[in-house]
């Protein structure tokens, strides 16, 4: 059973659940969009409410409707609400424009919605249909080629790909940050953490491989090598559960969007060590990420702050020790972890051609290197080395 805690740990209790159907990239909406809807909506309404409540205490109404009107107008005399309404926002890779529209509805004075693909045409129509053409400017161009004459207060982008860094879109956000973001400006999401952990996945192995051992009574085991190559050569996008994970996760890369450089993303290498928490066949490694939404702060190093959970008062350091966080450190987190609700990103699995049997306490160690493909900078090369019980292996894959 996957380790769990009563609220202070990384993993959550893993109840029995129905098996999830694996979905492709197009399946389902990205969870981030819902997070933006909630965060912007709550931020705006809570601010107005607090000012309105203050206004009611300072003005005696002659009727209930007068009370509501007075509170409404008094709230607009507070300078804070006007500060919120003059922000300039840039949406890097706006897609259909929904995040740009959220920003405009939250009070942004102007939103530059930048999209290189032809979906920008539809984004313009969506903006027009919602009567926001005076606030949201859709620009059909790569952000690197855009010409904007003013700095922006906020940069938003749904840049996260499978395994966090697939498609290399974060480089465009970095470009926009360095060219247009005002000093002290906001980037959302602000931080992200890529995790990995060894997993057992007998059901997946059985349905992909063992099927060929006996097909309606016919021995088709000669198909096994080809079946393994077809099923496990490239990374697989799947939804697994917490029960599949054998250990606490390890941080592959922590990204501070305020300070990260494009150069450091070209190749990432880290060494890892795991101790299996149970006896099971090791079928591969799973990767997932968290995205955090907070303001600029002292940048934690790659050996310090790695995970912040919205439902927990702890975080993990590189040696997986849990440490208390103060309430002021709490931030909003979008998680794609196996124990959380499934998202569009699911989890990325690197399957082995042959499982490795491990026992409780057995050490699994090695290194992982993620680098841009020379074939296509949007692709990602994965070089995985792993060793257990004196046996060493190497797996190389390309995420296309």
From TrEMBL:
Keywords: Methyltransferase, S-adenosyl-L-methionine, Transferase
Annotated region described as Disordered, given as residue ranges: 1-47, 298-330
PROSITE patterns xref list: SAM_MT_PRMT (PS51678)
Pfam families: PrmA, PRMT_C
Comp. bias regions, Low complexity: 33-47
Annotated ranges, domain Protein arginine N-methyltransferase: 191-303, 327-387
CDD domains: AdoMet_MTases
Matches recorded under InterPro entries: Arg_MeTrfase (IPR025799), PRMT_dom (IPR055135), SAM-dependent_MTases_sf (IPR029063)
Gene3D superfamilies recorded: Hnrnp arginine n-methyltransferase1 (2.70.160.11), Vaccinia Virus protein VP39 (3.40.50.150)
Biased composition (Polar residues): 298-320
Protein name, per record: Protein arginine N-methyltransferase domain-containing protein
Organism of derivation: Platanthera guangdongensis
